[in-house]
Each structure stands twice: as C-alpha cells, then as structure tokens.
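Researcher: Sequence recovery benchmark, item below. Answer with residues only.
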C-alpha cells in the first residue's frame, strides 16, 4: 500500500473543524490542528467555504516560517472537515519534505535550475502550479509523488 509523507494511505488531507455559533448568530470555524486558521461567517455553508481560504492562508504562514504543516487529526463522529485540493496537498508535502531535509528555497532553486520567483510560486498554495513541477522538485529531494483515486 502506498503512503504519503504523513504515513497516511492517500493523498487527501481533510482537516477537522470546530463550528460554533456565537451570540451574534455568526459561525466561527477553527481548526484543532491548525490554530492559525480561523473563519467567521453568517451561515454554516459560507463559513465552511471561507474555512478553506483560512486554511490555505494558514498554510502560507507555515511555509513562510519554514515549519511543517501538521497532519490532520482523525475527526470525531459527525465532525465536519475541510479537504485541501490535491494541488495544495502536493505543495504541503513538498514544503514539509524541504523542512525535514533542511533544504531552503534557494537550494531547491539551484537544484532545479530555476529562479527564486518560480520557487515562490511553486510553494504558494494559491498559485496554479503544474503538478510536474512539484514532482520534479520532490525528485530532487529523493521523493516521488504518488496520486491515487478513491
């Protein structure tokens, strides 16, 4: 069985959320695994949509601070989750591997023979990078990206 860098059997990263309604009838969404990600909205569906944006923003913080993005914990029964898009997952896996190996962006740029702005885009969760660029970066780190379908 194939495993991702978190030791999980798939490429999906689904983060459990806490959804709370406050006295003003707004919804607060927090992530137990990523405390930097917080979202507020007037209704539950919008709160969950905004939560993905908040999660991606928090991931940018982890990337900028050269910290590993934590793996999601197992959701409790009936707990809602926010699932990262596959491309963002690939970027998280790349960034985490760079942190583990102590490889800085400048070193990755050198290994890939790319300029720093290209590496910055590669590690930007909101940029539509090509998957083959992430695969090439992981290969330079001695890793291979596996994609599966459930």
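Model:
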């Amino acid at each position: 069985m194939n495993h991702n860098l978190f030791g999980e059997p798939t490429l999906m990263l689904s983060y459990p959320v806490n959804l709370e309604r406050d006295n003003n009838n707004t919804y607060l969404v927090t992530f137990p695994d990523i405390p930097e990600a917080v979202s507020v909205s007037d209704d539950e569906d919008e709160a969950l949509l905004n939560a993905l944006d908040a999660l991606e923003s928090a991931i940018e913080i982890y990337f900028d601070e050269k910290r590993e993005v934590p793996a999601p914990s197992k959701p409790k029964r009936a707990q809602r989750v926010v699932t990262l898009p596959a491309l963002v997952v690939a970027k998280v896996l790349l960034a985490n591997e760079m942190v583990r190996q102590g490889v800085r962006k400048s070193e990755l740029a050198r290994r890939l023979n790319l300029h720093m702005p290209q590496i910055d885009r590669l590690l930007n969760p909101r940029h539509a990078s090509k998957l083959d660029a992430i695969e090439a970066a992981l290969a330079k780190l001695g890793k291979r990206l596996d994609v599966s379908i459930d």
